[in-house]
Predict the structure.
Amino acid sequence: MDHSAIALSMNGLDENERGPSFLKFNSTLINDQEYCNLLRSEYKNWLEEFREVNDKRVLWDVIKYKIRQRTIIYSKAKARKKREKVKHLEESLRDCTTECDNNPSKENLDELECLEAKYDQLYDYITQGAIIRSRATWYELGGKNNKYFLNLAKSNKKKSSVRKLNIYQGWKIN
């Protein structure tokens, strides 16, 4: 029998940079009609592209790979648009606040209130994402503990990462 002992060393987690990790599918994409339509149209193309593949298991693996590729591209583009929207909304809110300070008319105050409501709604969406990523089973409704959930998600990420694996062919006796 050929067996080797394995020793796992878990030091220096803070000094290593994070790399790419496993894809965790964002289940909200299932309700995204644009994403579903994209996959439906691409699926037909993939079946045509890989029509020579006879083994259904291989075809399934190739299609899963293609879905993963498209999902990553789509999700990155969607996240980029979301960040741009947040940035634009923050700039509009800052400009409107300045305008209200200089000219506190009813129209300006109504516009400021509307922008604040949009920003709060967007912030709630971001907070929900942090709660899901942190895998917290409870949270206090009404409280925006964004920092708590972001730190919890960061801590969970560090705990789930293996940075170094040492394989020893023999034991050293000291």
Remarks:
- Residues 23-80 form one domain.
- Strands lie at 6-7, 166-167.
